[in-house]
Amino acid sequence: MKPRLLLISSGTAHAYNFYKLIAPYFSEIKVITNKKNKDWDFDAVELDFSLKNISTYFKTPSQIRKIAEEFKPDIIHIHQANSYAFYALRGLKNYSAPKIVTAWGSDILLSPGKSFWLKKMVQYNLKNADAFTSDSKFMAEEMRRLSPEKKLDILIANFGIGIEPVNAEKENIIYSNRLHKKLYRIDKVIHAFSKFPEQQNWRLVIAATGEETESLKSLAKLLNVKAEFVGWVDKKVNAQWYSKAKIFVSVPESDATAISLLEAMACGCLPVVSGLPANREWINDKENGYVVENINSDFFSEAVKTDVAKASVLNKKIIEEHGTKEANKKKFFSLYDKLLSPRI
Q1: Is 161:327 a contact under the CB 8 Å cutoff?
Q2: Which DSSP letter does residue 307 get?
């Protein structure tokens, strides 16, 4: 008989993708989230995971415990080592089912540096879960550094790409689809393109939206950059842009493994990325992509010197081995097998 899963996560597309990835392993999955996503085709219980109210500190863990006792899950999988894990692990303390925490990036790489209390919260999560997953070796090492007293066994796995390349001829397009937030430094992409001597022969296409969209449009106008802001695109349109673009650019100041990077690699783009450890796990500079060392430079002029055709072949092979849904599904299923084996 298949086991039952209690999945706790924020109401994002990432949570949806993970649900679909691991659903075949379980007979039933109950989801707890902060807010139901309108695109989800499964039900979920909404709870408050904010850290603003002292009442939430007691109420949410109690509610999670009650749901678990009624549902009786065989495995509990929590996404993000922040308040989601904190409330869940407090509410499920001494609960018999094994508890997994999957780190997403900012929860490990940024939050602990923001305050003493956030660091303590993350350390509590790392101390009290039974198993962990990370999408990069670098983030896994940071998790171990935050919890030196516990020798963490961390599975390196991502959620796998959900995009199939479209049969399209490559064009001189530079494609960006990261969120319009300060973290992702889309402004630096626009500045770099303004310095690119060949910009008249290239198109800069900026997808996605965010709190900085209007200021980014103003910046492009100020710098006389003909950037095409195409807004929020669906999976099909996203695949079309990847498949037509020669270059994919993603230069955040902090990040774990970005699914968008893997999607771009699968579609034959030359990735232009910031020199973050997680990016370097996928990209060898000037071999299968270009690593930006100076964010204020004309980095597109250097990037186009890379052999795009060679990089495309290398990237597609890397994704087949490590970035597909099937490859990563096997990793998560093996973890579940391992956690359940003593209980069978």
Answers
A1: no
A2: -
For the chain, the helix, strand and coil percentages under 3-state DSSP, each to the nearest 5: 45, 20, 35
Assess if residue 109 is contained within a domain.
yes
pLDDT, tens digit (0-9, with 9 covering 90-100), for 241-250: 999 999 999 9
User: How far is the C-alpha of 258 from the C-alpha of 254, rounded, in Å?
Assistant: 11
Alpha-carbon dihedral of residues 334, 340, 341, 342, nearest 10 degrees? 150
Is residue 245 within 8 Å of 228, Cβ to Cβ?
Answer: no
Interatomic CA distance for residues 90 and 58, integer angstroms: 9
Residue 78 · residue 47 · CB < 8 Å: no
Question: Could you tell me which of 95, 123, 281, 302 has the C-alpha nearest to residue 196?
Answer: 302
Q: Is 165 helix (H, G, I), strand (E, B) or coil?
A: coil
Token pair, residue 76, equals 């509990």
Residue 129: closest CA among 85, 87, 96: 85
Burial 297-331 (b: 16+ CB within 10 A, else e): eebbebbbebeeeebbebbbebbeebbbeeebbee
Among candidates 193, 103, 106, which has minimal Cα distance to 156? 103
Q: Which of 234, 272, 266 is nearest to 250 (CA)?
A: 272
What's the domain range around 103? Answer: 4-159+325-343
Number of separate domains in the chain = 2
Global pTM value? 0.77
**DSSP-based three-state secondary structure for 229:** strand
How far apart CA 251 and CA 295 sit, in angstroms, is 8
Which two three-digit tokens encode residue 227?
Answer: 């950037």
Low-confidence residues of the chain, pLDDT below 70?
342-344
pLDDT value at residue 343: 56
Contact 333, 64 (CB under 8 A): no
Residues 315, 226 share a domain: yes
